[in-house]
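Quick one, tokens below. Sequence please?
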């Protein structure tokens, strides 16, 4: 949600890809792709954003915390980031999502959004469940 220098962003993409491969992910057994090259993420985020009310997003603790750290000048991107996360999850019709405790409320937004969409337009998205990591 913060502007990045293009060269730094490109390097971060390469570094992240290298880290994923170094962890043992086998590209012969899974598909690796750059999410920003898939326009359906942004398209679904727009559709879901039209179904999400602003007061719900304003109540999310991550918004409150980051907005406070940015001198009350949080951006629209920061506010709507949880809707993009919901789109990322729902686009692939995910049924289980590994999350940390700090992301449970964002997953709940994805669950509520799936239920709202399904009620309005018919069963389409499964309602994803959290897989909480144990540290």
């Amino acid at each position: 949600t913060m502007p990045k220098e293009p060269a730094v962003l490109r390097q971060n993409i390469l570094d992240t890809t290298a880290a994923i491969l170094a962890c043992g992910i086998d590209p012969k057994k899974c598909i690796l792709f750059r999410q920003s090259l898939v326009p359906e993420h942004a398209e679904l985020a727009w559709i879901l954003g039209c179904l999400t009310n602003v007061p719900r997003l304003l109540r999310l603790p991550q918004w409150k915390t980051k907005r406070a750290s940015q001198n009350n000048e949080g951006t629209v991107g920061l506010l709507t980031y949880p809707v993009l996360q919901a789109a990322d999850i729902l686009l692939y019709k995910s049924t289980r999502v590994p999350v940390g405790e700090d992301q449970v409320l964002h997953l709940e937004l994805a669950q509520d959004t799936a239920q709202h969409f399904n009620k309005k337009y018919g069963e389409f998205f499964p309602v994803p469940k959290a897989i909480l990591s144990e540290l």
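The CA atoms of residues 40 and 91 lie 8 Å apart. Residues 104-121 form the longest helix (18 residues).
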